């Protein structure tokens, strides 16, 4: 009896309909029928951890429809056998390098024909969705007559993040199904839609626990599920005059988030809806050409590249992490936020500092963060706060699998901490430093176990910046580096391996960019003009604003260290910057730096002169040149890792695909010639680095 009760309490497997008798004729699908003559088409893409749509998956769906039309079932259920979710969207790898608009149009027209056919069948069709239904996956679900969400499911159209808009009929089906203004908002932002919100919108028909899937399917097939119909007001919003008014506002909002010249997808989607909204067939037909033109654009191709850069770094995380307990030393902005993020990721974390006040402040920030990112899951918020343990006496170091030092950038201070830690850390524990620039060869001096010291350099704000530089020195135990990468992946961060060298990858490349901005300030150029030059290039913020965000004290320390260690030709730090640091005018964190900050935003003049043509190259090419130098010196041997680090750690304009990719697109010889020209005009700091030879040929 007890065994039976325990069995009933175990999580149920997915209800995938009857078990197939054998492998069947399909590689990516299983097709069965239940006792009610309902067909179950279960997608399980071969050799993949998640379902994505490609030509092979869609062709097999077409073949399934052939078979079902020849022997009509009572209904059709489409769901996924993957634990991760329904369908994660299109397999964008099939479009990498696309240059021919007509070829993309033909492929999309073939795909449209299949989803149109799914929508047109005369028997009821039901999409059962667990996990996620994104992009093309959601478009398949929209072509079904009913949609059942398993509790916890999420939906969305993230195509805008790849420089695209939905291309499998989704623009027409989504704006027809729900309030078109809300549909456009979700497509323009790429935001995910939790199940309850999706139900309220009318995107799905019902939310059920897994154990009730079969009953919900029966109700859907019998036509017993209530479908929320668009209201008269929703339809009025799709009228021509209403679309023109709304489209104007949408363009204004889109321009604030992403300039149209760099990110054309939002404008293309707005144009599509303004011209064809309310005419279902016309909008579907126009969607194909609009999608194809976006797909062959440099923006989309570079953003697809960024997608695969992310996947590459995820792969570098390797296998499962064995780290369960983390001890963080330093409860300042970085240390406190590292501790908070580790606790949110399921680890037990102890947080220490020399005083109680910073620890209290870190716990308060963590509670605010958890309340924001976990508002739909109060239990997770509670559990994360329980795992984040104040530890004024530092006792947690004795039990920790990983100790992360996030103390101020002072070598002697860090070494004194290490000396005490090594006497209490358990033998297999890892010691990591969050130093932003100090070479590990310096920090390992005097350690009893230097082979267990690794760099884990996080970026601010920790909860939003995805990159962690995993820094190795020549004496590092390979198993420690492997464990550090796995830990990074376990907390949902992207590891960028780097050899220990002053500034590592990101700060090394950012410093000449920031330094040149200070030179321009000394030349009398307004800070707003300097920032505008970088923003016009595509940077998310200019170097002056970035310096304030990072903190002028940190910028000064890094610049001084790099100039000292590398003998760089960058100009000396101006005295006025040292004075600001001395006066504690450090930027955003103190309310004043290079800008005055109010309510978290810099106060900028709106009448600053426009940038001159030289400014963007003066700012960006030193960064690009340093990225090449990193290759030449072996700080990283992979141009993709350098590009990924600068995108995910420094926000380098994603639509350009990374600084080294940008240089290759522009032409290495042209970039080097331009650097020589700038060197003649402004100084030796612009001389091309030796590392360019790694990118030539």
Automatic annotation (TrEMBL):
A molecular function (GO) term: long-chain (3S)-3-hydroxyacyl-CoA dehydrogenase (NAD+) activity
E.C. numbers: 4.2.1.17
Family: In the central section; belongs to the 3-hydroxyacyl-CoA dehydrogenase family.
Protein name: enoyl-CoA hydratase
Keyword Lyase: yes
InterPro entries: 3-OHacyl-CoA_DH_CS, 3-OHacyl-CoA_DH_NAD-bd, 3HC_DH_C, 6-PGluconate_DH-like_C_sf, 6PGD_dom2, ClpP/crotonase-like_dom_sf, Enoyl-CoA_hydra/iso, FA_oxidation_alpha_subunit
Residues in 3-hydroxyacyl-CoA dehydrogenase C-terminal domain copies: 503-597
Species the sequence originates in: Caulobacter endophyticus
A family per Pfam: ECH_1
GO biological process: fatty acid beta-oxidation
């Amino acid at each position: 009896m007890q065994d039976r009760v325990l069995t009933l309490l175990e999580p149920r497997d997915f209800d995938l309909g009857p078990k197939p008798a054998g492998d069947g004729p399909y590689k990516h699908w299983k097709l069965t029928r239940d006792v009610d003559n309902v067909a179950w088409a279960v997608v399980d893409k071969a050799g993949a951890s998640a379902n994505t749509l490609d030509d092979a998956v869609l062709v097999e769906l077409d073949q399934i429809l052939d078979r079902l039309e020849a022997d009509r079932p009572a209904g059709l259920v489409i769901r996924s056998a993957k634990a991760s979710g329904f369908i994660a969207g299109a397999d964008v790898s099939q479009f990498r390098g696309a240059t021919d608009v007509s070829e993309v149009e033909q492929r999309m027209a073939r795909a449209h024909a299949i989803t149109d056919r799914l929508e047109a069948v005369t028997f009821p069709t039901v999409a059962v969705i667990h996990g996620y239904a994104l992009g093309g996956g959601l478009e398949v679900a929209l072509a079904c007559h009913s949609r059942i969400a398993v509790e916890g499911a999420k939906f969305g159209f993230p195509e805008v993040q790849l420089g695209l808009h939905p291309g499998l009929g989704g623009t027409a089906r989504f704006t027809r199904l729900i309030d078109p203004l809300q549909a456009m908002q979700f497509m323009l932002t790429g935001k995910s839609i939790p199940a309850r919100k999706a139900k309220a919108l009318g995107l799905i028909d019902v939310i059920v626990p897994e154990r009730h899937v079969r009953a919900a399917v029966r109700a859907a097939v019998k036509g017993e599920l209530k479908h929320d119909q668009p209201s008269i007001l929703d339809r009025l919003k799709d009228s021509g005059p209403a679309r023109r008014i709304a489209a104007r506002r949408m363009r204004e909002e889109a321009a604030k988030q992403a300039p149209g010249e760099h990110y054309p997808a939002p404008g293309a989607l707005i144009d599509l809806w303004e011209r064809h909204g309310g005419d279902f067939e016309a909008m579907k037909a126009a969607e194909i050409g609009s999608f194809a033109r976006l797909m062959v654009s440099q923006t989309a191709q570079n953003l697809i590249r960024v997608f695969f850069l992310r996947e590459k770094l995820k792969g570098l995380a390797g296998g499962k992490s064995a780290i369960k307990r983390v001890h963080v030393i330093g409860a300042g902005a970085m240390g406190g936020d590292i501790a908070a993020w580790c606790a949110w990721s399921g680890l037990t974390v102890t947080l220490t500092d020399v005083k109680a006040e910073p620890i209290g402040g870190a716990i308060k920030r963590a509670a605010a963060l958890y309340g924001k990112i976990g508002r739909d899951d109060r239990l997770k918020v509670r559990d994360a706060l329980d795992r984040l343990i104040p530890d004024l006496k530092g006792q947690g170091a004795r039990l920790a699998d990983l100790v992360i030092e996030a103390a101020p950038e002072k070598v002697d201070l860090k070494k004194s901490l290490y000396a005490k830690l090594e006497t209490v850390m358990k033998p297999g524990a890892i010691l990591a430093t969050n130093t932003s620039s100090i070479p590990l060869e310096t920090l390992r001096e005097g350690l009893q176990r230097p082979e267990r010291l690794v760099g884990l350099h996080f970026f601010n704000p920790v909860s939003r910046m995805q990159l962690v530089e995993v820094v190795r020195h020549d004496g590092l135990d390979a198993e420690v580096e492997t464990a550090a990468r796995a830990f990074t992946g376990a907390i949902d961060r992207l590891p960028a391996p780097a050899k220990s060298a002053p500034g590592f990858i990101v700060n090394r490349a950012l410093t000449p960019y920031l330094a040149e901005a200070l030179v321009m300030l000394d030349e009398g150029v307004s800070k707003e003009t300097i920032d505008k030059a970088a923003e016009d290039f595509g940077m998310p913020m200019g170097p002056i604003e970035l310096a304030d965000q990072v903190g002028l004290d940190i910028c000064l320390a890094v610049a001084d260290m790099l100039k000292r260690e590398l003998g760089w030709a960058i100009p000396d730090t101006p005295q006025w910057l040292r004075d600001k640091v001395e006066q504690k005018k450090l930027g955003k964190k103190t309310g004043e730096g290079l800008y005055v900050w109010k309510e978290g935003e810099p106060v900028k003049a709106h009448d600053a002169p426009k940038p001159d043509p030289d400014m963007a190259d003066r700012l960006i090419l030193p960064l690009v040149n340093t990225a090449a130098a990193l290759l030449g010196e072996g700080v990283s041997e992979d141009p993709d890792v350098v590009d990924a680090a600068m995108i995910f750690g420094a926000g380098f304009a994603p639509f350009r695909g990374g600084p080294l990719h940008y240089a290759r697109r522009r032409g290495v010889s042209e970039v080097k010639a331009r650097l020589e020209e700038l060197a003649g005009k402004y100084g030796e700091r612009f001389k091309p680095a030796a590392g360019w030879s790694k990118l030539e040929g």
